[in-house]
Amino acid sequence: MPLAPSRKQQTHDRIVDAAARALRSGGFAGVGVADIMKQSGLTHGGFYAHFASRDALIAEALERAGHDAHARMQDALDQGQARGFSRFRTLVENYLSERHLNAPEHGCAVAALASEMPRQADAVREAAVARVRELVADVRAVLGPDPSEETAGVIASQLIGALQIARTLGPNAQGRKHLAVARRFLLEQFDPTPAS
User: What are the GO MF terms of this UniProt record (predicted)?
Assistant: First the structure.
């Protein structure tokens, strides 16, 4: 029987969850220690009982955001497969969805943060690189028999870029149209089977 997390671990998790949401919705600059602690129901002074630095929090929040996005995608893949859709189609339709367009705080950290990642501290960049590699691995896993890492990387780039452009256009007709065109292009190229 697994042990219940300690009160300190529960508090730590609450802080990381708040930081992961803030990262996806407001970027790296959106993670202010005082704000994250307030969102977690804590005082600013308690921060250093959990993290050595803001960068340590951001690195852990990136990991949490990646884990959460990966788990949500796995659930979506299972549901799509149960309905007779290919895993690739399910990944594309979920990643390039209106839901993902409208709610970056619940979506992929890579799409939310890619342009900012190279300017971060080493520990944060390492966590960001791990998220990119995880996304490429997820794409590769749904592509079918023996896809190359390069092909998966290009498709991941198309997913990220399409979502970023749609978000720039806005959660409106233009943004939705851009996602629809990107979905259609990717599915025609890599999943020629019709949707069920």
Answer: DNA binding
Q: Where are the domains of the chain?
A: 55-190
Nearest Cα to Cα of residue 35 among 21, 55, 50, 56: 21
Q: 3-state DSSP call for residue 32?
A: coil
Nearest to 116 by CA among 56, 51, 26: 26
R_g (Cα) of the chain, nearest Å: 18
Length of the chain (residues): 196
Q: Are 93 and 183 in contact (CB under 8 A)?
A: yes
> Is residue 39 within 8 Å of 30, Cβ to Cβ?
no
CB-based contact 110:132 (threshold 8 Å)? yes
Instruction: Please list the ranges in the chain whose pLDDT falls under 70.
Output: 1-2, 192-196
Q: How many helices (H) and strands (E) does the chain have?
A: 9, 0
Q: Looking at domain 55-190, what is its CATH homologous superfamily?
A: Tetracycline Repressor, domain 2 (1.10.357.10)
Quote the pLDDT of residue 132: 93
Residue 155 structure tokens: 């498709």
Contact 95, 70 (CB under 8 A): no
- Cα–Cα distance, 18 to 25 (Å, whole number): 11
